[in-house]
Every structure is written in structure tokens, then in C-alpha cells.
């Protein structure tokens, strides 16, 4: 529970304004009784408690009479201060201070409240909060835990308002509503009604939705039942299928046996056919070999089998070695592929590491450059030339850290010194501002007094001018009196002429009409002055409100101008960036999205650069591989061309095989021709056969026989040379065939290189080039995007500060407009276009006119009286002269 402990009062009503006059009241718990005679200040204490807690002045004072009267204190400015120390609802100690100032003007006093301060103790330290940062009235109500209505109408109810329970029904209801916060309950009931209506609408929607959900549930249950039945059917079907599968297993096994036997039969049949074909081929080969055979083996079958087996072992050994060589070749090819793949990966890794190394070196050079520039700037020795070692870097960091700590200490010391100086200067500024305010009030008072004296001087000068005119008139009248006295000595006829002339020249009626007109004008001026007095009284009554209104209006204009300047400064830029002028949150969200986009773009750029480096490395590897394959292809083609003489390897090989076959047949024919020709010659010569041993043609003559023998002998002589040349040519062709057969793998390699490997490499190279170009385009696009959005982010960050300030101005502007509306409500029915100075000036002008009219009325009345007296005097003089003339005439008659 909150509890009031102490309160000090200075400069309020009858309390003095000096520090020695400050009164401190200590309140006791649970009850403090204020006892004293009338005028002792009991009510003032209650009023001070009400003002310090709620900020409301006593009824009918508006603050002017609440402060000690400056006239009584014989001071221009009187300051009043109320301090209260109390415990809030949490038991924490709080001190509140409210200050006021009342300034004596020429005809009135001006009241103004100063900045209030509320001080709390947190963690042993005092924390102050001024009225510029918070509303003290709200803080007090929150700290005391009592509403303002209870404070005003119950706890600190003024004695003039103590009969409010006897007021009219409407006002009484309003009071009780404020005390018991009935408005809050009404609002709560309205909120409950709205919530009930909303919930009822939701219930209707949910009931409608429930209807459809029930349908969905029924449909789901139906589907679930269908699924259950289908699952049962599926289970039974699976059991049936399983039984069928069990029945099919022996059939499948039997079928497999039949298929196995059939495959055996087919295999045996194929073997039989193969053996028959092989037999026929062997028989054919045997016959061909017998035909081609130059030397027939003369040994036994065992020896031939041994020789054959030895040859087979040699062949198997060669085949085994060939298989081993092929296996070794495949192993080496596999290892080569693995090594090439590893090489590619290493090359890619090398490219990436090289790129990182280059960047690292760039970072090191940049770091060394920054170290040199910073060392030069900080005047650190030993860092004039790079590169720097780790020890130098650590030493540099240590020196910079020490320098930074020293600079931080110096900066803190300077900040403390500046803070002390700023506090001192602020105190001096406050004192000068107070002096300036007092001097301003004195200057205004003196100016008003001087203006008044000048107006009085003008009135005196005018009266003097009027008096000078009256003296001239007096002189004229004296002259007239002299003339009258002289005329008394003249003839009465002259006096009568003068009397008639004076009556004729008299303008008494005109002056009377003028006096009536002037009196009407004076009455109008009197009414105007009364209205101006009433208006002046109203303006004086609302001077504080009007002053606050003017200050608030000026503040509003300043804030509008500041907002307009900020908008005009950044409107085009922010509109081009966002399409509209944002508030602080929108701009912060936009900056967050831009920052996220920049980070994502940087990540994508780094990823693209990494992919580009990998692709470049892959391209170099593919280029090298393609170059190697092309060189290998060129080398293979050269070797193939050297052996074949053309690029048509298959045709040359087939043609060569045909030539070898022909040469083999020709060699076999020539090898057999020698024996056949010898046998033919022997038969023709030794046996004296007269018929041809081939065609059995009978030679008719000896010459014909000798011609045939001679022809056979010549062929027999040529046969060894032909056989030798044929064998030599056959060996060359066989050698070339063997070479060409040896080039079959090379030909296959050429085919693979031409049709598969080189096109694949070229396709890969094209794909890699396309990827590189795409990556370069993507990198350029990302760099362009980054170069576009980073300046946008920087410019938006620059605008963020002004937008924050503008938003604060807008909030303050709303507060000012709210206060202006409150002040305008107080000034409702008052002409806000007219100021006190204008009304005062108009009043002075009307007063001057009134004084002038009054002077004219008095002057005209005096003129009328003078003229009437003159006429009366002339009449009396004329009568006297007439009587004297009559007497003289009588005497003369006598």
C-alpha cells in the first residue's frame, strides 16, 4: 500500500519564497491531523497534496492565485516549489517535485508551470525522470494506486467542492462513474457483448462446418469399412495365390528339369552339329593341308601327338600369357582411369586451393598495407616495410590494443571533463535563461509603462494645444472687452450695431448640434470601451491557455517544417527504392530483406566463383586430355598409314588376306608343280609314252612330244625362281598382315578415339565452355545485382536515421495536435485572431478618441457659454447705453 511520508512547500499562497521560508511537513501513519486557526495554511497543505498528486489547481485559481503574490513579495518573478516523498504500492521510495513561476506584468500576472521531476531509487542509485520524458500525473496515479477521481473527489476534495454529493443527478452520476470507474465496466460489458456476438457467429460457422464434418466422417467410416472388406478379400486372395504357388512349385521344378534336359539335348545337338562342322572343316583343312603340305611328317602318330601336345602347351602358355597381359592391361587401364579421375579431382582441388591461396595472399597484402598505413598514422616504428611475420603481427596487435586502451581512457577522461563542463555550462545557461526571463519581464513592464507615459504625454501636449487656443480666445475676448469699453464711450448706435452684428454672427445653435453629435459619439465610444474591457478580461483570463496555444502552434509549425524538410530530402530516393515513402518499420524490414538478399547474392557469387574455378580447371584438364587424344590419334593414324599406305584399314586387310591366300595357293601350286613336271618329264622321256599324262592326248609326232617336254623342262627350270619369289612375296605379305593384325587394337583405338573418346571430350569441352560462359554471365549478373543493391542499401541506411527522427517528430506532432485540440476546447467561443496587445492598442485608440471627443464637447460648451455671456454683456451694455442715452436724451430734453 502506498504511504505519504514528507512534503515541502515553498512560495505557495502565504508560504514564503525564500529558502528559509520552506516548510516541511512530516506525515504520520496511520493518521495525521492538521490543527490551526483560520489562515494558518491547512487548506493550502491539502491543495498542495492535491496538486503534487494530480496536477490540478484549486477551484477558481488557474494557478495565478495559487502562487505567492509577486506584489506582496515586491518581486517581479515568484517561484513556487512543492516536493513530496512517498512510498508507492510496491514500497519503493519515490520523490516528486513540481515547480511554478508567477511573473508580474503591468496590469496582470502571468503564471507558468516549470518542468517536473520524479525520482526513484533503483539498486541504490537515484534515477530521475522529467516531465519531458513522461507524464508525471499518470506516473503518480500508477504509483499511488488510486485513481485521479478518488484523489480529487474523495481524498483531497476541496472544501469549496465538498458538497458535490448534493449536486444534480447527471453531474452526481458522472462523479460516481469516475470514482467507481463505471466507464471501464461499461466498456468491458460492450467488449463482452462484442466477444459474445463474435463467438456466436463462430459457433454458427462451426456448426455449419460440423454438419459437413459429420458427412465427411460418415463417408470416412464407409471408406474404412470398404478398406476392411477389401483387405479381407486381399488376404483371402493372397492365401489362394499362395496355395496356387505351392501347387506350382513342383510343376516349376519339373518344368525346370525338362528345360534343363532340353537345354542339355540342344547343347548336345549343337555340339554334334559343331563337331560335324568341325569335322568337315578339319577334313577340308586336312585336304587343303595335304594339298599345300610341302613336307609330310614321317613319324608315328605318337610322335605327332607329342609334337601336337607340345605345340598346344606352347599355345596355351602363350594364351595364358596373353590373358595375363590383357588382365594386366585392364588393371593398368583401370588404375589409369582412377589416377586420371584422382588427377582431375586434385586439379580441381588445386585450382580451388590456388584461388584461395591467391585470395589469402591478397588479404595478406591488404592487411600489410593497412598495417603500414595504420602504423604511419599511429606513428609506430618497425612497420614501414612488409611482409610481416606472425610475431610482428602479434606485436602490432598488442601495440594497437595498448594505444586503443590509452585512447579509450583519454576519450573517457575527455568525455567526463566535457560532461562536467557541459553540466556547468548548462547551469550557467539555466541561470542566464532565468535572468533573461526576468529581464524580459522587466523590459516588457518598462515598455508598457513607457508606452503609457508616451500616451499621457501626447494627451498633455494636446491639452496644451487646446489651452493655447483658449488663451488666444481669451485675448480676443479681452480685446473685445476693450473694444466694448471703448465702444461704451461711443455712440449707442454703434453698440447696437455691434450687438446686432454679434447676434447675427453667433453660432450657438451649430455648436449645440455639434455637442449633441459629439455626445452620441462619446456614448458609442463608451460602449466600445466596455466591450473591449470585457474582451480584455476574457483574454487575461485565458492568457496562459493562449500562450500555450501559441507555443504549441509554433511547435507544430516547426515540427511540420522538419518533417517536410526530411520528406523533401529523401522523398525521391525512397520512392524510387520502395515505390512509396515508408515509415521506420517498413524501411527496417526493407533493409533487412536487402541485407538478406545481399548475403544470399554474396553466397551465390562465392559458389559461382568456386564452380567457375572448378570448371576452368576441368576445362584445362579436358583440353589437355583432348590434345593428348588428338596427338595419340595422329600418331596412330601415321603408324597405320605407314603400314597400310591408306586409311582404309579393313579393305586393305581383306585385300591383303586375299592376296596372301592367292600367293599361298600359288606357292603350293609351284611347290607341287616341280614334282609334277619332273614326273611328267620322266614319264614322257623314260616310259616313252606318246600320250599326255594329264589329258591322255596322244602326240602324233616326236617333235610335238619333244616340244611338250621342252616346254615342261623350261617351266621346271622357272618353277624354283617363281616359287622363291612367291614365297618371298608371301612372307612380305604375311609380315605385313601380321603387322596389320598387330595394328587391329590400334585401329580399334583409332575408331574409339574418333567415334567415342574425342567427340565425347569435345562435347564435354563444349558443355564446359557453355557452363563457364553461363557461370561468367551469372557472376556478372550477380555482381551487377550486388553493385545495384549495395548502394541502395547504403542510401537507405543513410535515410533510416532521418526517417526515425521524422517518425519521432510525427509522434510528437500528434501529441502537440492533441494538446492544441485540448487548448482550443478551452478557448471555444473566443476570437483567436485577436491578441491582448491588439485589444489593448484598440482600447487605447478608443480611449484617446473618447478623450478627444470629451475635450471637444467641453470646448464647444465653453464657446457657447462665452458667446452667450458676450451677447448678454453686449445686451446689458446696450441697455445701459440706451438708458444712459435716454438719460442723456432726457437731460438733453431737460
Automatic annotation (TrEMBL):
**Sequence positions that bind Zn(2+):** 692, 695
Which cofactors? Zn(2+)
Gene Ontology CC entries for this record: chromosome, telomeric region; Mre11 complex
GO terms (molecular function) for this protein are: ATP binding; ATP hydrolysis activity; metal ion binding
Where is it mainly found? nucleus
Keyword Ribonucleoprotein in the entry? The reply is no
Top-level taxonomic group: Eukaryota
Q: What name does UniProt use for this protein?
A: RAD50 double strand break repair protein
Amino acid at each position: 500500500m502506498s504511504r505519504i511520508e514528507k512534503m515541502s512547500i515553498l512560495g505557495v499562497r502565504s508560504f514564503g519564497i525564500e529558502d528559509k521560508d520552506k516548510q516541511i511537513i512530516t506525515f504520520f501513519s496511520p493518521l495525521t491531523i492538521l490543527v490551526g486557526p483560520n489562515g494558518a495554511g491547512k487548506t493550502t497543505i491539502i491543495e498542495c497534496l492535491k496538486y503534487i498528486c494530480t496536477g490540478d489547481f484549486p477551484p477558481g485559481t488557474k494557478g495565478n492565485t495559487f502562487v505567492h503574490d509577486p506584489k506582496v513579495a515586491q518581486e517581479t518573478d515568484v517561484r513556487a516549489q512543492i516536493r513530496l516523498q512517498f512510498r508507492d504500492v510496491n514500497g519503493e521510495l519515490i520523490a516528486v517535485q513540481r515547480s511554478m513561476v508567477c511573473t508580474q506584468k503591468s496590469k496582470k500576472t502571468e503564471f507558468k508551470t516549470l518542468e517536473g521531476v520524479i525520482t526513484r531509487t533503483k539498486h541504490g542509485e537515484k534515477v530521475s525522470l522529467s516531465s519531458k520524458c513522461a507524464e508525471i500525473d499518470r506516473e503518480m496515479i500508477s504509483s499511488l494506486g488510486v485513481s485521479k477521481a478518488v484523489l480529487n473527489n474523495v481524498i483531497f476534495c476541496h472544501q469549496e467542492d465538498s458538497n458535490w454529493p448534493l449536486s444534480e443527478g447527471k453531474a452526481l452520476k458522472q462523479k460516481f462513474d469516475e470514482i467507481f470507474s463505471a466507464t471501464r465496466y461499461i466498456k468491458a460489458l460492450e467488449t463482452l457483448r462484442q466477444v459474445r456476438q463474435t463467438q456466436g457467429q463462430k459457433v454458427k460457422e462451426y456448426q455449419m462446418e460440423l454438419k459437413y464434418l459429420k458427412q465427411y466422417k460418415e463417408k470416412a467410416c464407409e471408406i474404412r469399412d470398404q478398406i476392411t472388406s477389401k483387405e479381407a478379400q486381399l488376404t483371402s486372395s493372397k492365401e489362394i495365390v499362395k496355395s496356387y504357388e505351392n501347387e506350382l512349385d513342383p510343376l516349376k521344378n519339373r518344368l525346370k528339369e525338362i528345360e534343363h534336359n532340353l537345354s542339355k539335348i540342344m547343347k548336345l545337338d549343337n555340339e554334334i552339329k559343331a563337331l560335324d562342322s568341325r569335322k568337315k572343316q578339319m577334313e577340308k583343312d586336312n585336304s587343303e593341308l595335304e594339298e599345300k603340305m610341302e613336307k609330310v611328317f614321317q613319324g608315328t602318330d605318337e610322335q605327332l601327338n607329342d609334337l601336337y601336345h607340345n605345340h598346344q602347351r606352347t599355345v596355351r602358355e602363350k594364351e595364358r600369357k596373353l590373358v595375363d597381359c590383357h588382365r594386366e592391361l585392364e588393371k593398368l587401364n583401370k588404375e589409369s582411369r582412377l589416377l586420371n579421375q584422382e588427377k582431375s579431382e586434385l586439379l580441381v582441388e588445386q585450382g580451388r586451393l590456388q584461388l584461395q591461396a591467391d585470395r589469402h595472399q591478397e588479404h595478406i597484402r591488404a592487411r600489410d598495407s593497412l598495417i603500414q598505413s595504420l602504423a604511419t598514422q599511429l606513428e609506430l616504428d618497425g612497420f614501414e616495410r612488409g611482409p610481416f611475420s606472425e610475431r610482428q603481427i602479434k606485436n602490432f596487435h598488442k601495440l594497437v590494443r595498448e594505444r586503443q586502451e590509452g585512447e579509450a581512457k583519454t576519450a573517457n577522461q575527455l568525455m567526463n571533463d566535457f560532461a562536467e563542463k557541459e553540466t556547468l555550462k548548462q547551469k550557467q545557461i539555466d541561470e542566464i535563461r532565468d535572468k533573461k526571463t526576468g529581464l524580459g519581464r522587466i523590459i516588457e513592464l518598462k515598455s508598457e509603462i513607457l508606452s503609457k507615459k508616451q500616451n499621457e504625454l501626447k494627451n498633455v501636449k494636446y491639452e496644451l494645444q487646446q489651452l493655447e487656443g483658449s488663451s488666444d480666445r481669451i485675448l480676443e475676448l479681452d480685446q473685445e472687452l476693450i473694444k466694448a469699453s471703448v465702444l461704451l464711450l461711443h455712440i449707442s448706435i454703434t453698440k447696437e450695431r455691434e450687438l446686432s452684428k454679434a447676434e447675427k454672427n453667433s453660432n450657438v445653435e451649430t455648436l449645440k448640434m455639434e455637442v449633441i453629435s459629439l455626445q452620441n459619439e462619446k456614448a458609442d465610444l463608451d460602449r466600445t470601451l466596455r466591450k473591449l474591457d470585457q474582451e480584455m478580461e476574457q483574454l487575461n483570463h485565458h492568457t496562459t491557455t493562449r500562450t500555450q496555444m501559441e507555443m504549441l502552434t509554433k511547435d507544430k509549425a516547426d515540427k511540420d517544417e522538419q518533417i517536410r524538410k526530411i520528406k523533401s530530402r529523401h522523398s525521391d530516393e525512397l520512392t524510387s527504392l520502395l515505390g512509396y515513402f515508408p515509415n521506420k518499420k517498413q524501411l527496417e524490414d526493407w533493409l533487412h530483406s536487402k541485407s538478406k538478399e545481399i548475403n544470399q547474392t554474396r553466397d551465390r557469387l562465392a559458389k559461382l566463383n568456386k564452380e567457375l574455378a572448378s570448371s576452368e580447371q576441368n576445362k584445362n584438364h579436358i583440353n589437355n586430355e583432348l590434345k593428348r587424344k588428338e596427338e595419340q590419334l595422329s600418331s596412330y593414324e601415321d603408324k597405320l598409314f605407314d603400314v597400310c599406305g591408306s586409311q582404309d584399314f579393313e579393305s586393305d586387310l581383306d585385300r591383303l588376306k586375299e592376296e596372301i591366300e592367292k600367293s599361298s595357293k600359288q606357292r603350293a601350286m609351284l611347290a607341287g608343280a616341280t614334282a609334277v613336271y619332273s614326273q611328267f618329264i620322266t614319264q614322257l622321256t623314260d616310259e616313252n609314252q606318246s600320250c599326255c599324262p594329264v589329258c591322255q592326248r596322244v602326240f602324233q609326232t616326236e617333235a610335238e612330244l619333244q616340244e611338250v617336254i621342252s616346254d615342261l623342262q623350261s617351266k621346271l627350270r622357272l618353277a624354283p625362281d617363281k616359287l622363291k619369289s612367291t614365297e618371298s612375296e608371301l612372307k612380305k605379305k604375311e609380315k605385313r598382315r601380321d603387322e596389320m593384325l598387330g595394328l587391329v587394337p590400334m585401329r580399334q583405338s583409332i575408331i574409339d578415339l574418333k567415334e567415342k573418346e574425342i567427340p565425347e571430350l569435345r562435347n564435354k569441352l563444349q558443355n564446359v565452355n557453355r557452363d563457364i560462359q553461363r557461370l561468367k554471365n551469372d557472376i556478372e549478373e550477380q555482381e551487377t545485382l550486388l553493385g545495384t543493391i549495395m548502394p541502395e542499401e547504403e542510401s537507405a541506411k543513410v535515410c533510416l536515421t532521418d526517417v526515425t527522427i521524422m517518425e519521432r517528430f510525427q509522434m510528437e506532432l500528434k501529441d502537440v495536435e492533441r494538446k492544441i485540440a485540448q487548448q482550443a476546447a478551452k478557448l471555444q467561443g473566443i476570437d483567436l485572431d485577436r491578441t491582448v496587445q491588439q485589444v489593448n492598442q484598440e482600447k487605447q485608440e478608443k480611449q484617446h478618441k473618447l478623450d478627444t471627443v470629451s475635450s471637444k464637447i467641453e470646448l464647444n460648451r465653453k464657446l457657447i457659454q462665452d458667446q452667450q455671456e458676450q451677447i448678454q454683456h453686449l445686451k446689458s451694455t446696450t441697455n445701459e447705453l440706451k438708458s444712459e442715452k435716454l438719460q442723456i436724451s432726457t437731460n438733453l430734453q431737460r
